[in-house]
Amino acid sequence: MMLRDETLMVLGEVIEERDIVVAVYQSLFDWMEIKPRDLNYVATGAMGQASSHGLGLALANPERRVFVFDGDGSLLMNLGTLATIGEAAPENLYHLVFANGTYEVNGGHPVPGGKNIDFATIAKACGYPHAFRFSSLQKMQGMLTEIISCKGPVFMALDIEPGKNYPWKYDYIHSPEARDRFRSALNREA
Amino acid sequence: MTPLEYPSGKQIIRQLQMAGIRFVVSLPDIVTSSGLLWPIARNNDFELIRVCKEDEGVSICAAMSYNGTRAVLLMQQTGLMDSLNSIRAIAMDYQLPVVMMVGLQGKEPESMPKQSSVYGVRIIPSVLEAMSVPFSLIQEPSDSFTIQGRIESCYADSKPHVFLIGRTPVE
After folding, report:
1. What average pLDDT values come out for chain B (171 residues) when binned by 10 residues?
2. Interface touch B59/A43, C-beta < 8 Å
3. Is B59–A46 a contact, with Cβ atoms under 8 angstroms apart?
4. What domains can be seen in chain A, in order of their start residue?
5. Most exposed of A41, A94, A105, B128 (fewest Cβ within 10 Å)?
Protein backbone atom coordinates (compact mmCIF):
# COMPACT_ATOMS: atom_id res chain seq x y z
CA MET A 1 0.00 0.00 0.00
CA MET A 2 1.18 3.49 -0.83
CA LEU A 3 -0.14 6.54 0.95
CA ARG A 4 0.25 9.63 -1.18
CA ASP A 5 1.89 11.85 1.41
CA GLU A 6 4.33 9.14 2.47
CA THR A 7 5.19 8.52 -1.18
CA LEU A 8 5.82 12.22 -1.69
CA MET A 9 8.08 12.28 1.37
CA VAL A 10 10.18 9.48 -0.13
CA LEU A 11 10.34 11.27 -3.48
CA GLY A 12 11.33 14.45 -1.66
CA GLU A 13 14.54 12.77 -0.60
CA VAL A 14 15.75 12.47 -4.21
CA ILE A 15 14.61 15.86 -5.47
CA GLU A 16 17.64 18.11 -5.75
CA GLU A 17 17.75 21.88 -5.38
CA ARG A 18 17.96 22.56 -9.12
CA ASP A 19 15.15 20.18 -10.10
CA ILE A 20 11.80 21.47 -11.31
CA VAL A 21 8.66 19.81 -9.93
CA VAL A 22 5.30 20.17 -11.70
CA ALA A 23 2.46 18.77 -9.60
CA VAL A 24 -1.33 18.87 -9.79
CA TYR A 25 -4.34 18.89 -7.52
CA GLN A 26 -4.11 16.95 -4.25
CA SER A 27 -0.56 15.80 -5.00
CA LEU A 28 0.36 19.45 -5.47
CA PHE A 29 -1.30 20.58 -2.26
CA ASP A 30 0.42 17.79 -0.34
CA TRP A 31 3.76 18.51 -2.02
CA MET A 32 3.61 22.22 -1.27
CA GLU A 33 3.45 21.40 2.44
CA ILE A 34 5.91 18.52 2.38
CA LYS A 35 8.55 20.17 0.19
CA PRO A 36 7.98 23.92 -0.21
CA ARG A 37 10.50 25.27 -2.69
CA ASP A 38 10.81 28.02 -5.30
CA LEU A 39 11.17 25.61 -8.22
CA ASN A 40 7.77 24.03 -7.62
CA TYR A 41 5.78 24.86 -10.78
CA VAL A 42 2.21 25.16 -9.54
CA ALA A 43 0.38 27.03 -12.32
CA THR A 44 -0.76 24.45 -14.85
CA GLY A 45 -4.07 26.23 -15.44
CA ALA A 46 -6.22 23.66 -17.18
CA MET A 47 -6.87 20.09 -16.03
CA GLY A 48 -4.73 17.50 -17.78
CA GLN A 49 -1.96 19.87 -18.79
CA ALA A 50 0.74 19.10 -16.21
CA SER A 51 2.78 16.81 -18.43
CA SER A 52 2.61 19.28 -21.33
CA HIS A 53 3.98 22.02 -19.07
CA GLY A 54 6.61 19.52 -17.94
CA LEU A 55 7.57 18.78 -21.53
CA GLY A 56 7.94 22.48 -22.33
CA LEU A 57 10.08 22.99 -19.24
CA ALA A 58 12.22 19.94 -19.98
CA LEU A 59 12.91 21.02 -23.57
CA ALA A 60 13.66 24.62 -22.62
CA ASN A 61 15.83 23.66 -19.62
CA PRO A 62 17.80 20.59 -20.72
CA GLU A 63 20.33 21.09 -17.92
CA ARG A 64 17.69 20.53 -15.24
CA ARG A 65 15.65 17.47 -14.27
CA VAL A 66 11.90 17.98 -14.50
CA PHE A 67 9.55 15.83 -12.40
CA VAL A 68 5.81 15.78 -13.15
CA PHE A 69 3.48 14.54 -10.42
CA ASP A 70 0.37 13.89 -12.50
CA GLY A 71 -3.02 12.46 -11.54
CA ASP A 72 -4.84 9.60 -13.25
CA GLY A 73 -7.91 11.75 -13.98
CA SER A 74 -5.64 14.46 -15.31
CA LEU A 75 -3.63 12.14 -17.52
CA LEU A 76 -6.79 10.59 -18.95
CA MET A 77 -7.87 14.07 -20.00
CA ASN A 78 -4.68 14.48 -22.06
CA LEU A 79 -3.66 10.92 -22.90
CA GLY A 80 -2.12 11.94 -26.24
CA THR A 81 0.61 13.65 -24.20
CA LEU A 82 2.22 10.23 -23.78
CA ALA A 83 2.78 9.92 -27.54
CA THR A 84 3.97 13.53 -27.75
CA ILE A 85 6.50 12.99 -24.95
CA GLY A 86 7.50 9.61 -26.34
CA GLU A 87 8.40 11.23 -29.64
CA ALA A 88 10.04 14.36 -28.20
CA ALA A 89 11.98 12.08 -25.83
CA PRO A 90 13.47 14.59 -23.37
CA GLU A 91 16.12 12.77 -21.36
CA ASN A 92 15.49 14.98 -18.32
CA LEU A 93 11.76 14.31 -17.85
CA TYR A 94 10.35 12.05 -15.13
CA HIS A 95 6.59 11.58 -15.38
CA LEU A 96 4.92 10.11 -12.29
CA VAL A 97 1.20 9.41 -12.10
CA PHE A 98 -0.50 9.23 -8.74
CA ALA A 99 -3.38 6.89 -9.52
CA ASN A 100 -6.15 6.62 -6.95
CA GLY A 101 -8.97 5.90 -9.39
CA THR A 102 -10.92 9.03 -8.49
CA TYR A 103 -11.29 12.73 -9.15
CA GLU A 104 -10.37 13.34 -5.54
CA VAL A 105 -10.66 17.12 -5.30
CA ASN A 106 -13.91 17.10 -7.29
CA GLY A 107 -15.88 14.97 -4.88
CA GLY A 108 -14.16 11.60 -5.16
CA HIS A 109 -16.10 10.38 -8.18
CA PRO A 110 -14.45 7.46 -10.00
CA VAL A 111 -12.42 8.08 -13.15
CA PRO A 112 -13.38 6.03 -16.22
CA GLY A 113 -11.60 2.73 -15.88
CA GLY A 114 -11.14 3.15 -12.17
CA LYS A 115 -7.97 1.49 -10.97
CA ASN A 116 -7.84 -0.97 -13.86
CA ILE A 117 -5.89 1.14 -16.34
CA ASP A 118 -2.28 0.11 -16.81
CA PHE A 119 -0.72 3.50 -17.47
CA ALA A 120 2.82 2.14 -17.44
CA THR A 121 2.07 -0.22 -20.31
CA ILE A 122 0.45 2.61 -22.27
CA ALA A 123 3.46 4.85 -21.66
CA LYS A 124 5.86 2.15 -22.77
CA ALA A 125 3.83 1.61 -25.93
CA CYS A 126 3.94 5.36 -26.59
CA GLY A 127 7.72 5.42 -26.62
CA TYR A 128 8.85 6.01 -23.02
CA PRO A 129 12.00 3.90 -22.80
CA HIS A 130 11.46 3.20 -19.10
CA ALA A 131 8.07 2.66 -17.46
CA PHE A 132 7.28 1.21 -14.03
CA ARG A 133 4.24 0.51 -11.88
CA PHE A 134 4.27 0.30 -8.11
CA SER A 135 1.67 -0.47 -5.49
CA SER A 136 4.22 -0.88 -2.67
CA LEU A 137 6.11 2.08 -1.26
CA GLN A 138 8.86 -0.19 -0.03
CA LYS A 139 9.43 -1.62 -3.52
CA MET A 140 9.41 1.84 -5.10
CA GLN A 141 11.84 3.13 -2.50
CA GLY A 142 14.18 0.22 -3.17
CA MET A 143 14.36 0.99 -6.89
CA LEU A 144 14.08 4.78 -6.85
CA THR A 145 17.77 5.67 -7.14
CA GLU A 146 18.22 3.26 -10.03
CA ILE A 147 15.09 4.53 -11.79
CA ILE A 148 16.01 8.18 -11.68
CA SER A 149 19.48 7.40 -12.95
CA CYS A 150 17.84 6.22 -16.20
CA LYS A 151 17.75 8.61 -19.13
CA GLY A 152 14.25 9.92 -19.65
CA PRO A 153 11.57 10.13 -20.41
CA VAL A 154 10.87 7.88 -17.45
CA PHE A 155 7.34 6.96 -16.41
CA MET A 156 6.12 5.69 -13.04
CA ALA A 157 2.52 4.74 -12.24
CA LEU A 158 1.90 4.77 -8.50
CA ASP A 159 -1.22 3.03 -7.19
CA ILE A 160 -1.80 5.22 -4.17
CA GLU A 161 -4.33 5.79 -1.43
CA PRO A 162 -4.99 9.20 0.08
CA GLY A 163 -2.89 9.95 3.12
CA LYS A 164 -3.30 12.93 5.36
CA ASN A 165 -5.15 15.70 3.51
CA TYR A 166 -3.25 18.94 3.18
CA PRO A 167 -5.01 22.28 2.61
CA TRP A 168 -6.26 23.29 -0.82
CA LYS A 169 -4.47 26.51 -1.74
CA TYR A 170 -6.10 27.39 -5.06
CA ASP A 171 -5.68 31.12 -4.53
CA TYR A 172 -1.93 30.72 -4.26
CA ILE A 173 -1.38 28.35 -7.20
CA HIS A 174 -3.23 30.66 -9.60
CA SER A 175 -1.61 33.84 -8.25
CA PRO A 176 0.93 36.08 -10.03
CA GLU A 177 3.07 35.67 -6.90
CA ALA A 178 3.42 31.92 -7.53
CA ARG A 179 4.44 32.41 -11.15
CA ASP A 180 6.88 35.20 -10.27
CA ARG A 181 8.45 33.07 -7.57
CA PHE A 182 9.09 30.23 -10.00
CA ARG A 183 10.31 32.51 -12.79
CA SER A 184 12.73 34.33 -10.49
CA ALA A 185 14.15 31.09 -9.15
CA LEU A 186 14.53 29.57 -12.60
CA ASN A 187 16.42 32.52 -13.98
CA ARG A 188 18.37 33.25 -10.79
CA GLU A 189 19.74 29.75 -10.66
CA ALA A 190 20.33 29.29 -14.41
CA MET B 1 -10.36 43.19 -60.99
CA THR B 2 -6.90 42.99 -59.38
CA PRO B 3 -5.73 39.42 -58.87
CA LEU B 4 -5.37 38.32 -55.27
CA GLU B 5 -1.91 38.23 -53.74
CA TYR B 6 -0.85 35.62 -51.23
CA PRO B 7 1.54 35.90 -48.30
CA SER B 8 4.98 34.38 -48.70
CA GLY B 9 5.76 31.38 -46.53
CA LYS B 10 9.44 32.23 -46.76
CA GLN B 11 8.79 35.73 -45.44
CA ILE B 12 6.69 34.41 -42.54
CA ILE B 13 9.43 31.95 -41.64
CA ARG B 14 12.03 34.73 -41.88
CA GLN B 15 9.94 36.83 -39.49
CA LEU B 16 9.77 33.92 -37.02
CA GLN B 17 13.54 33.56 -37.20
CA MET B 18 14.10 37.28 -36.68
CA ALA B 19 11.80 37.14 -33.66
CA GLY B 20 13.97 34.45 -32.09
CA ILE B 21 11.47 31.61 -32.37
CA ARG B 22 13.29 28.38 -31.59
CA PHE B 23 10.50 25.83 -31.16
CA VAL B 24 7.53 25.29 -33.45
CA VAL B 25 4.76 23.25 -31.85
CA SER B 26 2.24 22.01 -34.34
CA LEU B 27 -0.70 20.03 -35.54
CA PRO B 28 -1.06 19.92 -39.31
CA ASP B 29 -3.37 22.42 -40.98
CA ILE B 30 -4.04 22.31 -44.70
CA VAL B 31 -3.86 26.12 -45.06
CA THR B 32 -0.31 26.29 -43.73
CA SER B 33 0.89 22.79 -44.60
CA SER B 34 2.89 23.30 -47.78
CA GLY B 35 3.89 26.94 -47.32
CA LEU B 36 4.85 26.86 -43.63
CA LEU B 37 4.84 23.54 -41.83
CA TRP B 38 6.72 21.43 -44.38
CA PRO B 39 9.45 24.08 -44.87
CA ILE B 40 9.72 24.48 -41.08
CA ALA B 41 10.01 20.70 -40.71
CA ARG B 42 12.98 20.78 -43.08
CA ASN B 43 14.60 23.83 -41.45
CA ASN B 44 17.27 23.03 -38.87
CA ASP B 45 16.92 26.47 -37.29
CA PHE B 46 13.71 25.27 -35.66
CA GLU B 47 12.96 22.38 -33.36
CA LEU B 48 9.58 20.95 -34.37
CA ILE B 49 7.42 19.39 -31.65
CA ARG B 50 4.47 17.47 -33.04
CA VAL B 51 1.59 17.28 -30.57
CA CYS B 52 -1.57 15.18 -30.53
CA LYS B 53 -3.90 17.97 -29.44
CA GLU B 54 -3.61 21.72 -29.63
CA ASP B 55 -4.05 22.47 -25.92
CA GLU B 56 -0.83 20.56 -25.28
CA GLY B 57 0.85 23.19 -27.43
CA VAL B 58 -0.56 26.08 -25.40
CA SER B 59 0.98 24.59 -22.27
CA ILE B 60 4.30 23.72 -23.91
CA CYS B 61 4.75 27.24 -25.32
CA ALA B 62 3.73 28.85 -22.02
CA ALA B 63 6.10 26.72 -19.95
CA MET B 64 8.98 27.46 -22.30
CA SER B 65 8.49 31.19 -21.85
CA TYR B 66 9.54 31.14 -18.19
CA ASN B 67 13.22 31.25 -19.15
CA GLY B 68 12.60 33.33 -22.26
CA THR B 69 12.57 30.45 -24.74
CA ARG B 70 10.42 31.49 -27.68
CA ALA B 71 7.95 29.22 -29.44
CA VAL B 72 5.00 29.38 -31.82
CA LEU B 73 1.98 27.09 -31.94
CA LEU B 74 0.83 26.32 -35.48
CA MET B 75 -2.70 24.96 -35.88
CA GLN B 76 -6.08 25.22 -37.60
CA GLN B 77 -9.05 27.20 -36.29
CA THR B 78 -10.73 23.98 -35.18
CA GLY B 79 -7.77 23.39 -32.86
CA LEU B 80 -7.98 26.94 -31.61
CA MET B 81 -11.61 26.34 -30.68
CA ASP B 82 -10.67 23.09 -28.97
CA SER B 83 -8.02 24.91 -26.91
CA LEU B 84 -10.08 27.80 -25.63
CA ASN B 85 -10.02 26.78 -21.98
CA SER B 86 -6.25 26.40 -22.01
CA ILE B 87 -5.90 29.76 -23.73
CA ARG B 88 -8.27 31.27 -21.19
CA ALA B 89 -6.41 29.86 -18.21
CA ILE B 90 -2.79 29.80 -19.26
CA ALA B 91 -2.40 32.59 -21.79
CA MET B 92 -4.98 35.03 -20.46
CA ASP B 93 -5.46 34.43 -16.71
CA TYR B 94 -1.74 33.75 -16.25
CA GLN B 95 -0.69 36.46 -18.73
CA LEU B 96 1.87 34.36 -20.58
CA PRO B 97 3.30 34.97 -24.06
CA VAL B 98 1.72 32.20 -26.11
CA VAL B 99 2.10 32.94 -29.83
CA MET B 100 -0.33 31.12 -32.12
CA MET B 101 -0.59 30.93 -35.91
CA VAL B 102 -3.98 29.70 -37.01
CA GLY B 103 -4.92 28.65 -40.53
CA LEU B 104 -8.50 29.59 -41.38
CA GLN B 105 -9.50 26.44 -43.21
CA GLY B 106 -12.46 27.00 -45.51
CA LYS B 107 -12.22 30.79 -45.64
CA GLU B 108 -12.68 32.28 -49.09
CA PRO B 109 -9.39 33.99 -50.07
CA GLU B 110 -11.14 37.18 -51.17
CA SER B 111 -13.19 37.69 -48.00
CA MET B 112 -12.40 38.96 -44.54
CA PRO B 113 -12.87 36.33 -41.79
CA LYS B 114 -16.05 37.84 -40.38
CA GLN B 115 -17.60 37.88 -43.87
CA SER B 116 -16.84 34.22 -44.60
CA SER B 117 -19.77 32.01 -45.53
CA VAL B 118 -18.27 29.32 -43.32
CA TYR B 119 -19.70 29.49 -39.79
CA GLY B 120 -16.60 27.94 -38.21
CA VAL B 121 -14.46 30.67 -39.75
CA ARG B 122 -16.58 33.78 -39.34
CA ILE B 123 -17.07 33.30 -35.60
CA ILE B 124 -13.33 33.18 -34.87
CA PRO B 125 -12.66 36.95 -34.61
CA SER B 126 -15.72 37.41 -32.40
CA VAL B 127 -14.67 34.54 -30.13
CA LEU B 128 -11.21 36.06 -29.71
CA GLU B 129 -12.69 39.51 -29.11
CA ALA B 130 -15.02 38.09 -26.46
CA MET B 131 -12.00 36.58 -24.70
CA SER B 132 -9.90 39.73 -25.18
CA VAL B 133 -7.23 37.66 -26.93
CA PRO B 134 -5.12 39.94 -29.17
CA PHE B 135 -5.09 38.88 -32.82
CA SER B 136 -4.17 40.09 -36.28
CA LEU B 137 -4.77 38.93 -39.83
CA ILE B 138 -2.06 37.68 -42.18
CA GLN B 139 -3.76 37.87 -45.53
CA GLU B 140 -1.92 40.28 -47.84
CA PRO B 141 1.82 39.81 -48.49
CA SER B 142 2.60 43.01 -46.58
CA ASP B 143 0.86 41.65 -43.44
CA SER B 144 3.77 39.24 -42.96
CA PHE B 145 6.12 42.09 -42.11
CA THR B 146 4.21 42.75 -38.86
CA ILE B 147 4.98 39.32 -37.39
CA GLN B 148 8.37 39.95 -35.81
CA GLY B 149 7.24 43.12 -34.06
CA ARG B 150 4.09 41.52 -32.68
CA ILE B 151 6.04 38.56 -31.32
CA GLU B 152 8.57 40.89 -29.70
CA SER B 153 5.65 42.70 -28.02
CA CYS B 154 4.17 39.43 -26.78
CA TYR B 155 7.33 38.53 -24.91
CA ALA B 156 8.01 42.09 -23.75
CA ASP B 157 4.49 42.49 -22.36
CA SER B 158 3.91 38.81 -21.42
CA LYS B 159 0.67 38.40 -23.35
CA PRO B 160 -0.60 36.07 -26.08
CA HIS B 161 -1.19 36.82 -29.75
CA VAL B 162 -3.06 34.94 -32.46
CA PHE B 163 -2.07 35.40 -36.11
CA LEU B 164 -5.02 34.38 -38.29
CA ILE B 165 -3.72 33.11 -41.62
CA GLY B 166 -6.39 34.21 -44.08
CA ARG B 167 -4.81 33.04 -47.33
CA THR B 168 -2.65 30.01 -48.03
CA PRO B 169 1.01 31.09 -47.80
CA VAL B 170 2.90 30.34 -51.01
CA GLU B 171 6.22 28.54 -50.89
Report:
1. 91 98 96 95 97 98 98 98 97 98 97 98 98 98 97 98 97 82
2. no
3. yes
4. 4-188 (3.40.50.970)
5. A105
